[in-house]
Amino acid sequence: EHMQARRLIAAGLTEPLEIVFAAGTYTLAATLELRPEDSGTARFPVTWKAASGAKVVWCGGRAIPSQWAKGADGVWQVDLTGVGPDGWNFRQLFVSGKRAIRARYPNADAPNPFLYATGGDLDHAIIAPALVKEAWGRARDAQINLVPQWRFFNQWNTVTRVDPKTGRIDFADSERHAKVIPGNWFWIEGVREELDQPGEWFFDRETRRLHHWPAAGVDPNTVAIVAPVLTRLVNAQGDVNAGTHVQHVHFDGLEFRHTDFTLGHIEARVHTDTAVMFENALDCSVRNCHFENIGGYALWLHLDSRRNKFDRNTVRHSGGGGVLLTGARLSYMDDTKIYTPGEAAARFAPLLNEITRNTVEHCGRIRYYGGGVHLDSRPSHMSMEPGNLIAHNYFNDLSRNGIFAFRNQGGSVVEYNHIHNAMQTTIDGACIHFATMNHLNAPNFILNNWLYDIWGYEQKPDGKPIRRLGNGIFLDWDTSNTTVRDNWIYNSVGGAIKPIWENQKLVIENNRESDTRIVPPFVDDLGPAGQATHGIDLASNRLTGSVIHYTDTRHVRTTGQWAPQTVTGMWGLFRFNFLVGTAAVPSTATYALPIPQDGTYQISLLYKSAQDCASNVPVVIAHAGGQAKLTWNMRKGSKHGFSVPVGTYRFKAGTRHTVTLSTAQTDGNVIADAVAFVKVAD
Prior knowledge:
Mean pLDDT: 96
Oligomer: single chain
Strand order of the largest sheet: 1-4-25-29-32-35-38-41-44-49-52
């Protein structure tokens, strides 16, 4: 179907093209790879769809043959030699449509189903020596599912060795995202010796034998058992370097099932397994589709992906969550975690997308740091750009947040969502959690959402979890320019609505909160069946201006000597880079401001203040009226944020305007990070 569709597209479309699937399960031998040449047009789109009324399943797994033999210990075995691709290994198994339990310790139904560290580090955990089993170290593919230091994400580490004498468990070097400290909880899975109760399974990739202890009275030869092969079913990918896109391609009425998850992710907060991938995609959609038993997210929007729609879909029992949106750099403030390298990729992140009328529930089964929608960090120069619409969704039974927006996310509208039973495996989050880390983000609107049962569970060695740091709405890390209105919130822990640190330009009004159940008068407007809207236009929901980062070779020029420096931020949570100069070599950094409209603009410097910074930095601002010469004290600044206003000036579009930093005769380090300009008056 793919090649036939491509031939028709190449010949020139004269009408909409539909690739229609009859009822049935289609086992994909490989990911469906779509490129710009598979695109439709606005007039003649390309749609991959199910026939009317047909149940069409795209399966990323393989059915286990009905050749099971029962062992003397009650565990059944089947030889998978010749089944599946060469080197096939899987860490999920779906029995009768449900994710089965990979052999583990402690058992999932134990009164306290976790082990608890008494100490450790990035590469190991320590527990009571009496609990350690030598079999864990002998296992060829045993993983530890660990919630480390800060208790707001998990990571998967492969066990390399254990020491029963000291209680030490060593990990491979992938996914060492945080230290192990006393109280961190985990389990170990993928050990044949731990297959000790009905419902569990184990696959030996060396002998190619699958072991399974079915429920009482069940013959595994009589039930459907599927193991995943593919981690991705659809990959629609344009080329960010060439500036090409996949356009006007739609998926309608399909079911996506049985995808796997991968190990070794570069960022715990941004797990990158997905059933459907849109990278550099414009005006595409996934609608009326169903996702179940997948290893990660349902849809991942990456790089220059605009005006796409994820509408009226259902996502259940996913390893991650609903929708992930990312730029080239993954997560938080860390400049070191680049997923897609290159100057072109660094300029983009998804915007103007609509995520509407979806149901996402029972998610985060593999990766805890996820939820209904995760909008990850976008480049600083995009902080004033429009955002995305997240409306009329129903999110339930989530490992962490319902909706999360990281650094520089602005211009988004979050309205009429129904979100509950969030924060079930981690702490320090919310049903709606924004951490823009930038005072200059475009306006965000959080309006008329119903949020409740936000648990914030932290597991404890006595088996009695406590509730901590779970909010209805969390305005984290200097989140600014945000309106929070008419939200109804109950049964949160730590505050229904929590601003934190140096928030600016917040409007928080007419919200209702309670410890016990409250039902909003607009309940019929919520979720997939609701129709209400505030009518905020995404495209115009922006600020006029930008942030110019020192890495922007189009707008930044330096003279003299500037040395790159990397600083670890608060509690080691992140690392970020900037340039440092001193008076030893008089140097300048000049930022050209691409002023889009005549007007008065606020100029800000972005830097992290420190006592070794200079107190007398010469700053020259070339504006419409001439030059402003300042002496700036970089020892002072924003306590938690990095944007420090230095004045307002008039500028004219089409005229060269600049901000220049100098190290001449300064008494400490001069930081060249970024310069921001935002229009404040005509």
